[in-house]
Amino acid sequence: MLPPSATDDGSWPSTRYSEMVEDALRRASHPWPVRHMRFENAGHAIVFPYLPTTQIARPHPVSRILTTGGGTPADNARVNAESGRGC
What is the pLDDT of residues 47-69, one digit of tens each? Predict the structure, then answer.
């Protein structure tokens, strides 16, 4: 199984990257099933179920530039719960 991806990832295009890996594995005749868990409207911080999801934007620790992980608190919480069931 690939790591889950989020369509509103503020750090990088995780859904596109996961699709690229999925395609490469299929082209290489990868012998095991590949499952890509794609989560609509969620952000970068797909972690563990039931953790707080309200801190989406924060200053970068070095540059102090405000960065965002994307998604909304509600969608990120939903995805954390759903991704935990898929493992």
Answer: 778 888 888 888 988 999 998 88
SS3 percent helix, strand, coil of the chain, rounded to 5, is 30, 10, 55
For the chain, how many structural domains are there in total? 1
Q: How far apart are CA 20 and CA 18, in angstroms?
A: 5
The range of the structural domain enclosing residue 9 comes to 5-85
Q: What is the reported pTM?
A: 0.74
Q: What angle do CA 35, 67, 71 make, to 5 degrees?
A: 45
The label of the residue with tokens 């095991």 reads 32
Query: Angle CA(52)–CA(44)–CA(77) in degrees, nearest 5?
Result: 35
